[in-house]
From TrEMBL:
SUPFAM superfamilies: Cytochrome P450. Residues 1-21 form the signal peptide. Keywords: Heme, Iron, Metal-binding, Monooxygenase, Oxidoreductase, Signal. The keyword Iron applies. This is Cytochrome P450. One of its GO terms (molecular function) is iron ion binding. Belongs to the cytochrome P450 family. It comes from Glossina palpalis gambiensis.
Amino acid sequence: MLLFFVVLLIILILLLRKVNENYFILALCERIKCVEGKPLEEKVCIIPGKTIFGNNFDVLNVTPEEKWHLRRKMLTPAFHFNILQTFNEIFKEESLKLLEKLKHLQHEDVNISDVIDEFSLNNVCETALGVKLNDIDGASEYRAAVHNLSTMIVRRVCNPLIISSSPFLPSEKSALKHFLAFFFRNSYVKTRYAMLDTLLHNEAQGLIDHQGICEEVDTAMFEGYDTTSTCLKFALLNLAQYPDIQKRCYQEIENLSIAQKW
């Protein structure tokens, strides 16, 4: 009887090893293979997963600790208090543009998500890179790419079977193509000192390479925009849900305006 179970266990292990060649056993999804049938790992570098499920259930893609500390230390001067103060003019300019746009749309149904996304992206672009997004060729395609990228990430995070192993759809490939290193493929004129200047200075000292700069710029643009945009939408939602709080906020702003006049 014992011999039977041993043989059965060996057969099961061999069967699982065979199946594991084509599938992630614990993640229940198929492994990607090249056209000629060879494993993808033989053609490109696959980042090892941090769990027993491979990289399919590693929802949070975190930077290695040493790299994160080096990059954060490198970027800290770009967000010095004196530099942050100069951002007020950008926020004021973009806020006035937003108000003017909403005035023209006050008698129409407005998708506030689209309006806030554009507003946030404009602010992050000029504060982090020192350039106006609307002055760059292909800005509309970049905005669409950022939006599509957000949708893609949510879809993949919500489905563990396609988080990292599923091939990109044509629309996803197009979004990634327009998003990745967009600011390095187009010509533009910088108007102020920004995070990008700090990165270029460190590149000249050999502390970071071109690929690293692209990574930091793309990360700052997407994550900075997404966080800001989401917070603003949530704030507007709450103001709409609670008119009494909205009235108090409005009155506070009015009082500040009156105080500034004096």
